[in-house]
Amino acid sequence: MHEQIHNTQAALILRRLSHGLSMPDYSAERERFAPSFAGAWHKDLNGNYKNWDIAASKSGNVAIIPIIGTMTRYGGLCAYGTEQIAGWIMEANEASYVSAIVLEINSGGGQVDGTELLGSVVRQSKKPVVAYVTGMAASAAYWVASQCKEIVMESDVTSEVGSIGVLAMHVDASAFYEKEGYKIKIIRSEGSQDKALFNGVESLTPEIEASVKNELTVIRERFVSTVKSGRAQISADVFSGKMYTGKEAIKKGMADRIGFLGDAVYRADLLARKSA
Asked: Which residue has the higher pLDDT, 46 or 251?
């Protein structure tokens, strides 16, 4: 996840948890405001509502599917889940009236879980998929964007891509609980000495930190290899976690062109006509 978004959301979540509050359920709001993410809902040929918009083109219709907000597998924080988005892409592939797909992306990334699935679905799509980046496609969002046939960025100065890397946050809350009058001790059963060592009430030992870092390194290696497989001309110096604005991103092979949504639809339509 992009550092700024990670830090902001982590602060909000930790504040709620420190006051004994559960995480809010945004499912109702997500459904209520769904049209603002996906444009006006439309009916398919069978009269069923779809959670994506369509744009007429020479090749047929281009489905516009949103990846907006924090990416989690099952959705939350007013965003759709990566598993849900993957399902829409597969539906669009089976819809006879859809010729190509545009992913409208404005996301700082999110969970590792579900990202690889969505990226694979995009890569294996029978119909061409073009990424259209408005504000940012960071971390998990860029993982997915890199698997598209092309990446169109809205602005050469205000749109960003990158944050290729993996992190985990550990908060040692033991001092807070002690101040509140709680002394917490985790008791593990015989033979469960390695269970839940990465927690918020026990200090990290150098061994645990090294173990977590190794796990993250393996995920990062998969992230990097996946991006390279989708963006063959990408520069070797973009894998540190840095973000790049449109002009620089194109220069480094992270994106293809600057344009608006109509341009992304045109590129998807053109790719569909070429592959027909």
From this structure: 251
